[in-house]
Known about the structure:
With 100 residues, the chain is mainly α. It has helices at 9-17, 27-33, 41-51, 61-64, 71-81, 91-99; strands at 58-60, 88-90. The protein has a single domain (9-99), classed as Orthogonal Bundle (Recoverin, domain 1), CATH 1.10.238. The protein has a two-stranded antiparallel sheet with strand order 1-2.
Amino acid sequence: MALSAVLTEAEIAAGLQSSQAAHSFDYKTIFVKVGLNSKSKDQLTKAFGILDQDRSDFTEEDELNARALTDAETKAFLAAGDSDGDSKIGVDGFQALVKS
């Protein structure tokens, strides 16, 4: 599934624009810029499925490292959404992170 199944082209462009500079990834800003914070639970589940490349029902560090994030940005994102310290974010944790 492509991100365009959940977000409009304008939303995707806004998210990319907000994190173009090196070390500028801020998940809260991106969630707002792309409008994820206003999406339904079903739409967030679809967005999570795009991140969960191995279909394990969790997003792990290696899946986030497939994106253009620094190690520090990846670790910060995981830490923010990992409520039980297992170094993974489940769909419920992702939804809570987006809505926080």
